[in-house]
Structure formats: structure tokens, C-alpha cells
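Entry 14. Structure prediction run on the chain below.
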Amino acid sequence: MIAGRLNEVINILTPTEVINEYGERKTTLTKTYTTRARVEYNNGSRRNENDEIVFDYSKTFTTYPYVPVVETSVIEWQKKQYRILTIEYRREYNELIINTELINE
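Output returned:
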């Protein structure tokens, strides 16, 4: 891994379930880890869904292999949140590759 290419700061958010005083279960995202990563743009598209224009973006984040990330985590970068699709460890380069898509909510 070439550490000089890790030029962006990302936050790893973990979903936690909270029960309020009415018994309602709500999922909140809690920041658990901050690290540096390389961000690569994969593709993007625009589609019409339920008479609403939705922009789909796909990005790849490359980071250190010791970052505590799982498939249920969410990555926050530049005030946008990305859902994790796959996590892949490349042993020959000692790096963790995370494929994501933009959360449109």
C-alpha cells in the first residue's frame, strides 16, 4: 500500500438500535472510527423512481486492513453516507477495498 494516496478522511458509522419511552425501535448511526482512505469514483447514473429523480453513485474506498468495518457499517465522506456492498482484503498490497453506493434517503 502506498500511504501517500490515502488523502481523504472518512468516518465509519455503526448502526445502533435505541428504544424510546414509547417502545419504538429506532436505528441511529454512531461514529466509531475515523481513518484515511483513497476514494475512487466507479460509476453514476440518474433514474426515475416513483416520479422522483434518483442519483445513484458508486465509490470504492481503499484503506488500511486494520480498520474495524463490517457489512452493516456506513461510511461517511464529504457529508454524504455510503452503504457498504462488499469488503475485500488484498493481501499482496496489504489494503482493504470497500465497494459502496450512495444512500438516497
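Strands lie at 8-19, 25-48, 53-63, 74-77, 80-90, 95-102.
Filed with the rest of this week's runs.
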